[in-house]
Amino acid sequence: MVESSTRHPQGADRGCKDAEAPVESYASTTTLRLTEVFLSLQGETSRAGLPTVFVRLTGCPLRCSWCDTTYSFQGGETVTLTTLLARVAEYGVPTVCVTGGEPLAQKNCLPLLAALCDAGYSVSLETSGALDVSQVDARVSRVIDIKPPGSGEEARNRWENIAHLTPHDEIKFVLASRADYDWAREVMNAQKLSQACPVLFSPVQGELAPAQLAEWVIADRLPVRMQVQLHKILWGNAPGK
């Protein structure tokens, strides 16, 4: 069990109001729709390779053309925050990633994130970037996926989120073509993204060869981290991995 901590660093006021109350006061009545909880290696971001407990919440308002977790759009089970925290604790791993679907589509994702931080976990959030991230607990590393044209969801990008990012957060571009790459490069320059936080570029599996993307990044000397999905290299698209 990870040691509990209730310390909130400067800037933590962007967390939700519920997050400031003791966990016990809301955990037994707060519920979430859950697809799965599992232990794996983090396959992406600066935490790639770390043993991580994944909490995959159910539901997503987006329909990206290359989505690999469509099974999380519907179904799942309703669980209390108390139950969910207990499931995470069973793995005895200090790193937790809350993902989806789109986890922020559930309002109770905010108290979940805060409760995980209060319990002493190192927490990251994987979000589409289509929803407001400003109320996420300051201790969480927010990984925002900016959608290029090839995703079919470019219009859903919430550009206001960029102003809320800190070096603790990360921006991810998943790219399917040269057109997507050129678009992402232009967005990076126009929005000065590399000055806000680390930026990640990754290829869509089966659509853009990793080596090709790497060559473009090197040629343009972009200040980004090129990444591939480690979990897919190891286990393919198997759920729970």
What does this structure look like?
- The structure is a single chain.
- Helix 3 (178-191) links the parallel strand 7 and strand 8 (199-203).
- The model is unreliable at 1-21 (pLDDT under 50).
- The protein has helices spanning 81-90, 109-118, 178-191, 210-220, 230-235; strands at residues 31-41, 51-57, 77-80, 95-99, 122-127, 141-146, 170-175, 199-203, 225-226.
- It has one domain: Alpha-Beta Barrel (TIM Barrel).
- It is an alpha/beta fold and 241 residues long.
- The protein is built from 5 helices and 9 strands.
- It starts with 30 loop residues before the first strand and ends in a 6-residue tail after the last helix.
- Strands 3-1-2-4-5-6-7-8-9 form a 9-stranded mixed sheet.
Q: What's this entry about, in short?
A:
The protein has helices at 81-90, 109-118, 178-191, 210-220, 230-235; strands at 31-41, 51-57, 77-80, 95-99, 122-127, 141-146, 170-175, 199-203, 225-226. With 241 residues, the protein is α/β, with parallel strands linked by helices.
Q: What is the CA-atom radius of gyration, in angstroms?
A: 17 Å
Give the H and E element order. EEEHEHEEEHEHEH
- Under the CATH scheme, which architecture would be assigned? Alpha-Beta Barrel
Q: CATH class, please?
A: Alpha Beta
Q: Report strand order across the widest sheet.
A: 3-1-2-4-5-6-7-8-9
Q: Quickly give the structural class.
A: alpha/beta
Cα end-to-end separation: 22 Å
CATH superfamily: Aldolase class I
What percentage of amino acids are in beta strands?
15-25%
Number of helices: 5
